[in-house]
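Fig. S4 source data, part A: sequence.
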Amino acid sequence: MRLLRSTDLALRVLMRLAVAAGATPTTRQVAADMEVPYTHATKVVAELQHLGLVDARRGRGGGLALTEKGRTTSVGAVVRTFEGEGDVVDCEGTPGCPLRSGCLLRGALRRAQEAFFASLDPVTVSDLVTDPTGPLLLEISRGPKERD
């Protein structure tokens, strides 16, 4: 199973904001830190804000901040939201699979998908930024000028 780019970016944005320590980076700064297109980051940040995981303020003195809900949210919940709960394979597509009325693969893949999500449920965003990840994120967020 491979995560969508938006799911991957959502998790990285949450992790980046979890180590911000009072700073409020802009979406543009976070996009640069994560080396992703600004437009893609904007869409992901908007969804994270809609979910109540990120507080985004515009204008002078604005920026992004992780909410308490964002800090304690389950990684499994974030992945489910961004990935959707659809089947791993499209048995009903056009043309539909001729085995769909008696196939055991669909159920097995569904159970595997649920096991994947379940393994991420106990992990929180805060858990993701412990050593060594947290210090690495801080180093990335400082940028090349501040590292020298």
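Fig. S4 source data, part B ends here. The chain has a mean pLDDT of 88.
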